[in-house]
Amino acid sequence: MEILAHPNPALKQRAQDVEHFGDRELKSLVTTMARAMYDAPGVGLAATQVGVLKRVIVYDIDEGLVALCNPRIVESSGETEFFEEGCLSLPGIEVSVERAPSLTCEACDIDGSPVIIQAEGLLARVLQHELDHLDGVLIIDRATPEERRAAIRRYNEVVHTFG
Ligand SMILES: [Zn+2]
What b/e sequence results for 113-151 when a residue is b if at least 16 CB atoms lie within 10 Å of its CB, and e otherwise? Predict the structure, then answer.
């Protein structure tokens, strides 16, 4: 399955909660997303990025594949930090994004069992990035107006260069 790229309108949509767990549809969505993420390659992917408006994310920060449904950040702490982020839906550019360095995320696994994740560093950043996708928010939306304009200009040049 193809990963949607900006400015595809689906990337601006808010995804809906998963209500049916453990069925074939959800499992096949997660398999498709994992394949697309590893092929890219990337460390995380939200269902929104394959055009499915469900609150599902996958990630693998070299600790194995994790799939989460209906993830939400219930607590974040520490002094926010800026770091350059890339996005599979904005190939070729990076944007400096301010994020919390540590957080607690509550979610369900694909069978509907509750999961609590204490995250910091890269994982905290990946979770905030992917949860943004579920709300239709991209890294360029996190930038200042000036940075956003510059990033979109670079993005359009890259897209133009590579067709
Ligand atoms: Zn992204």
Answer: eeeebebeeebbbbbbbbbbbbebbbbbebbeeeebeeb
